[in-house]
Amino acid sequence: MLASIGFYIIASVFTLTAVGHLRDPSRLIGSLSGHGIFASRWIAPIAAAAIAVELSLAATSITLIAARVDSDLAIRATTAVATCILLMYAFYSWIVLHRNPTATCGCSSVDHPINIWVALRALLLAAFALIPLMWPWLVEQPVALPVYEGIIMLLSTFAWLIIVWHAPAALAVFDGWRGQAPDGSARATAIGPSESR
Question: Which of 80, 82, 122, 174 has its CA at 20 to 30 Å from residue 129's CA atom?
Answer without folding.
Answer: 174
